[in-house]
Every structure is written in C-alpha cells, then in structure tokens.
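<instruction>
Derive structure tokens from the sequence

<record> Sequence and structure tokens follow
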Amino acid sequence: MPSLPSTGGGASSSPLSGAASSGAEKLTRKITDGYTEFVKGFGAGGVAVVDPAALAAPSEAPPVVIEEVLADGQALEHAAGGQALTLPAGLRRLEVRYAALAFRSPEQAHFAGQLEGFDPAPVDLGHARSVTYTNLGPGFYRLALAAATEGGPLPPPGELLRFRLRPRFYQTPWFLGLAALSVLLAGLGFYRLRLAALTARYEAVLAERTRIARELHDTLAQDLTAALLHLRRTQAESGRGAPSLASALDSCRGLVEASLAAARRSVASLRQPLERQAGLHQSLEKLAEEARRTTSAEVVLEVATQAPSLAPEVEENLLAIAHEALVNAVRHAAAGRIRLVLGNGDQRLRLAVEDDGLGFEPAQAGENGHYGLLGMRERAAAIGAEVAIDSHTGAGTRVEITLARPRLWSRR
C-alpha cells in the first residue's frame, strides 16, 4: 500500500482531540488548505495530515472487460478470449458494453478502442461505457479496448472480441461471379444481336445489288445484245440491198423500246412492288414471240397443263430464268429449233427451254464475264426452285426449272 506523507501533532494541537478523547475510532476533517486530517487512535491523541495531490498515480492501466454484446438489440453469448462470434447477415446495429476494473474512481476511467477492419486507427471513446457500430459490411473484425484512470497513461488497445459478419446472398463471391458472368453474357448477346443486325443489313444490301445486277443482265444486256445482232444482220443485208431493211430496223427499235421499259421497271421495283404480270402462260408466249423476231430458228411454246396461280416474285424469277435460257439459245446455240415446255403435275411445276444447237460445257460457264447461268441459279434459289442444265458440245442444251414448294405459289 502506498505510503502517505504526514505530519505529527499532539492532542492539544488538533481540533479533533476532543473527538478522539470521546472514544471515536476514526474521524477525518478537510482542512481549508486542501489537506486532510485523520485521527490515528484513541487516548494517544495522534492526528495524520494527508495531501491528496501528492498521492502517486497507479503504475498500471486497469483491465477492460466486455459486459454485454447486443446485435440489433438482442444479447449474444460471448466468452473473453474464446472463439469468434458469428453474426447474422444483414446486421444493422452492433453494440458492445464494457467496463474498467479500477478500484480508484472507476467512473472516471478513460477509454480508447479500435475495430480492426473498420477503424483505421484507435478512437478516443472518452468516458463512454459502450460503443455502437452500424451498417458493417461482411467480413472478419477484431475489437480492441484500453482504459486508464484519471492521470494515468492510456495504453494501446488490446483485443477483447472477435466476430465474423456473414454476407447477404448478393454479397457472396459466387453471386458476384455469377453477376459478372451474366453481364459478360449479356454483353456478348448484345454484341451478337448487333452483329446479326449488321450482317442482315449487309446481306439485304448485297441481295439488292445482286438483284439489280441480274435485272440489268437479264433485261438491258440481253435486249441490247439482241439489238446488236439485228444491227449486224441489217448491216450485212444493207450491202446487198435487201428489201427487209425497214423490218429489221423496226425490230431494233422495238428492242430498244423494250429495254428502256425494262430499265424503268427495274428502277421502279426499288421503290414499290412490281405490278402483276398477265400470267405465266401469256408471258411465255410473249417471250417466244420476241425470240421469233430475232432468230431464224423455229421457236415453239408447249403448255402441257394449265399453270397454277403464282406469287409475283415466283412468276418474275421463272420468267427471268426462261428469258435468260432463251436468249442464250438464240445467241450461242445456232439452233434450228427451240422449245419452251411448261408442265404441272405431282405438286411440281416444270419449265424447260431446250434447243438442238451446238451445246456447251456447263463447267466452263461464267468465264469471259458471262454470268447468265449463275444468275439463273441465284433466282431459282430465291424461290426454292431447282435448275438442271444438261448440255454437251454438239448435242444441244436443255435447261429445266422445277418448283416443288406449293406454299410459294398463290399469294393473290
């Protein structure tokens, strides 16, 4: 026990001597200058005077103990230095109540604390007997506390409580990974949709350009080629003074007019749907009549059965394929007879153009800038038809188109 500085005095010199002589065991009195007198005993008449300011401060800080842990107002079981507490997910408020084991003025104890994982440095808690944390994130925490009495040093906080706060389901690593994967897949899906849209747009533009190229080849190029043949024949006959000059020039004029009309139709088709044709039979008859005016070969149209009513795009592509095959026969076959055959049976529509001319090798088609056969195949594929080309050098040529998709027939 620390010693107390004191001054001695007799009974006669102390105002308390009367009290001592009356039999009191202990009696104190505060003197006006801050000292305190203690009666030391009975008849001996001794008095001790103590200076409180001269009392030595305690050399060690008092220990701190946790009295109670409250999670959202509910008390939790805990043990000092034991296993870490596991707190439920979604905890909003954590309160820790503590006290200092000091026998000298415990109400004046001074505290400091740090929640590792939340506080970057120790926090001065003053004389508070509890600390509260709100909206903590999931993870592991360590609470350290320290105390000091008045005038004593405040040591570094020491660990008193460990706990783990469980995460919500959307705070778990697997959920965050799944969310990141979902965002990645969504981005990939958006990219693929965007790529598909751009590809579709590009294919639409390419298909339109291909269609225009076919139109130019199957109308303007072929008709102008026929007009050129007329002009060549006219030139040859004019040198001999042939009387058919006026008729040949009239045919050339008709072809040029037809080419102009076809060009106008091609431009108009880019802006609005094509007008309805007169019918497949009548259109084939018109093609045969035009061919008769440009060749000396016999051109025959044979219709086995009445053709079904066709959708506009189907009829247009069939006529374009027949026109291409007919023009090729007139230009290249040197044929004596050309036949156009139209038949319908077994839910199949067949259209054939055949000649008895020079023939050719289909494998060599497309060379030297001639794309007629390629255009025929593209048009057939556009309507779900098939094109069969049977030709050999010196054996004539047969081009047959077979349409076996009734659902594309009538759209009237």
Residues 30 and 36 are 4 Å apart (CA to CA). The first strand starts at residue 28 and ends at 30. The longest helix spans residues 173-238. The chain is about 35% helix and 25% strand.
